Each structure stands twice: as C-alpha cells, then as structure tokens.
Amino acid sequence: MNFISTRNTAPAATLSQAIAAGLAPDGGLYVPDVLPAPRELVAGDDIASTAATLLAPFFAGDALAGELAAICREAFDFPAPLRPLGTPDDHVLELFHGPTAAFKDFGARFLAASMARVRRNERAPLTILVATSGDTGAAVAAAFHRQPGLRVVVLYPDGRVSPRQAHQLGCFGDNIVALRVAGSFDDCQALVKRALNDAELQAQAPLSSANSISLGRLLPQMSYYAHAALRHRAATGRTLNLVVPTGNLGNALAAILARALGVPLGRIALATNANRVLPDFFAGGAYTPAASVATLANAMDVGAPSNFERLRWLYSGDDVALRAAFTASEVDDATIREVIARRYRDHGEVHCPHTATAVKVLEDLRAQGGEGDWAVAATAHPAKFESVVEPLIGRAVEVPPALADLLSRPAHADPIPADYDALRERVLS
Ligand SMILES: *Cc1c(COP(=O)(O)O)cnc(C)c1O
Q1: Domain contains 336
Q2: Structural domains in the chain (count)
C-alpha cells in the first residue's frame, strides 16, 4: 500500500517513508491511497494479534511487512480491559495500563518499535524532537528509551507541567534528553518546528518528530478498539458504542478508521473540554481553529485539532456527511469537577479529568434516551492528575506500579532559554 498526502501535492510514500517523515513534504498528513477492504477479525485474540491482522493491509509491500507481528508484540505488551461502570450497560475501556499510564503509550511504543527497524541500517542516529505539555513527551521518552540508533530530545515549559509529569520526563537518561525551556508550550513547539525545517542542522544530525499526526502512532491505536469491540460482540452479541475524549483527534480517528475497516463499533461520540472548535463544527458551524484555552483536561487543550484534515479526507471533503456521522460535545471545567466528585461519591469510580468529559457525554446521551452498550475511553490513570482529582474525592489516588517505578527513579532536566541557538547546540552535542 502507498500513502498520499491529504493536500495531494506530495509524492506517494511507502509506509516506512511515511513513518520516518511524520508530516508529508507539502505540509499535509499521510493517508492510505485506498482504504483497505473490511478484515476478517477473530475475537479472543490478544491485542497484539488483533493488531497484526488489522494492520496487515497497511504494511503490505513495505520493508516492515515481515516484522509487523514482532512490532505488535513489542508494542502491545500490556492490557486494555473493558470493565463495567456503576451504571447499567455502561463500560470503561481502560487505556492507561502502559508505562506512563496514558493511552499514548500504545502509539508511542508502536512508533518506536517501527522506527528502530526503519533505522536499523543507518549509521547516523536519528534524533526525535518532541515538544510536550506533559503526556506525549513521557510516552515517547519511555517508548524510545534505549532503542538503538534513536535519541529523543524532549522540550517542556519549565514550571508549567505538573511535578509528576516533570519527573516522568526527566527520569530516563541514556538516549533521552529532557530540556526545561524558560517559556511556554508554544515556545517549545516553535523551537521544534524551526529545527525540523533547518536543512543545515538536518545535514549534521538527522531529525524527526513523534507527534500525533504520525501514522506510526495513529494506525496502531485502532487495535485496542478492535480488540474490545470484538470481544464484547462475542460475549454478548451486542455492538459497542464509544465516547472518546478528544484533543488532536488522534485517538478518536483511530476508532473511526477501525469502524471503517469493519470492526463492529456502533456510534462514536466525541467529548471535548472548553476548547470547542469541534462541537461548533458538528453543530453546523464553519471549522474555525482558535488559540487553545487552558483547562483541567490539559492534554486536550487544542484549538486546532491536527487530525481534522484526515477526518475530512475520510468523508471526501463532504462536511454535511461528516456532521451527520458524529456528535461532539463540550464539557467545561466546573462540570469536569462535578463529574469526578459525584461519580466517586455515588459509584466509587475515580476518573481523570479527560475521562470525566467522556463520562459526562455518556450521562447526557442516557438522559436523552440513548440505548445500547457504551464504553468511555479512559485515556489516563487518575494518579497522573492527582492535584485535580484528590481534592475532589478527598483521598489519595493509588499510583499504579509502572508509574510508581518511574517516580522512584532520580530525574534530571537541563534548563535552556527559549532560544533557537541553545536548542541547536544541544542537538549537535
Ligand atoms: C493526548 C490525550 C488526549 C487527547 O488525545 P487526542 O488523540 O489528541 O485526541 C486525551 N486524554 C489524555 C489523557 C491524553 O494524554
């Protein structure tokens, strides 16, 4: 299979090329040149084998095709259980059992396993640059730690990520460099963009990125939805519907693609925080990217969802059909707090602020008479957002073992000014 750009003015690429490049050279996003026919999928397999079957057509003809099964086994070595919630026919798909306790571990680990193989015969190490406001950097650092031929430089805004997030970013060492930047997340992102466009720097130190537009993160995220939906169908004969908390639309788009490939998923509803560009669009407005606003669900603080271009491609640019296919609802900070406190009090459930937006959207669907079996995607463990969650539930949140292990290691990040030459120097050192 070949991959083309959503903007149609870049040459077609193989999967390996698309994964190595991240963004297409015309600034568009890579998409398959044709969507594969629906797959024969078997319930009961583990996530790794479901993934290998589902992803096979995307890897067909690529140099990585023979390694797909090994990549899947390496990436998907932790579970994503579907558990009942305290309300009938409601479930939670727990995506936070990986090393950094957020769903991004799945995509980051698949990308790292793929990139290590793509780069196997290259002499120069590849440097992955990541600007992060928290979750992405940690997942990428954990996934690329000690991968041969690969180095990660993570930039985060000093003092603007939680202490636990900062610790996670700085605790790896070896081939992972954490830089705390005297500036904002936007400053970090601008520095990374400038480096990626610096041909002179690239000639000395090949660079790539690992953000959520990468096909190597997007495609594997279909796997946990397929695994859950197939098992649910086999056990109950019923179709699973989903609510997905959404920022850049990476996780939600994976569910949408999985359904397009024949995975038995019903409705897919999107939940956002106060960044309401998607709710406004799905309510019939124009697509109007905006500056992001800070919320309690900070990993979803996105004013211009980067994968929206792929969603439009999937619907051939037909916004009327796209609006008819999904709903998107905004959940503000006061409601996030209310949901976390009330679900704990009434049902003993502890949700992270991102998951809480999806729980609220499901509650509203039920209140409007919505039927069927639904699951909310739980995108992070609440222990990652303890400063929000603990005051609301009045007790400490137990830290999962993988996260506790990271937090028990010493951590170190080098300070740098929000200055391009400072970054350049670090990349070359
Ligand atoms: C990244 C993230 C999201 C948003 O995912 P997208 O793929 O950007 O839509 C939601 N919740 C958590 C905890 C995250 O880390």
Answers
A1: yes
A2: 1
For the packed helices 333-347 and 386-393, what is the interaxial angle rounded to 10 degrees?
50
Residue 252's CATH number: 3.40.50.1100
Atom of ligand 1 nearest to the CA of 302: 8
Q: Which atom number of ligand 1 is nearest to the Cα of residue 254? A: 7
In a domain, residue 334? The reply is yes
In a domain? residue 30: no
Residues comprising the chain, all counted = 429
Residue 129 and residue 209 in contact, taking contact as beta carbons nearer than 8 Å: yes
Is 72 among the domain residues? no
**pTM of the predicted structure, to 2 decimals:** 0.95
Of 135, 185, 355, 361, the residue with max ligand 1 atoms within 8 A of its CB, to mutate for a pocket test, comes to 135
Closest Cα to atom 2 of ligand 1: 299
Pick the closest to residue 241 from 367, 323, 358, 79 (CA basis). Answer: 358
Whose alpha carbon is nearest atom 4 of ligand 1? 247
Range of the domain at 264: 78-102+218-400
pLDDT at position 185 is: 83
Q: Which residues lie closer than 8 Å to 324 by C-beta, 6 or more apart?
A: none
How does pLDDT run across 99-132, given as a tens digit for each residue?
999 999 999 999 999 999 998 888 889 999 999 8
Distance 194 CA to ligand 1 centre (A): 25
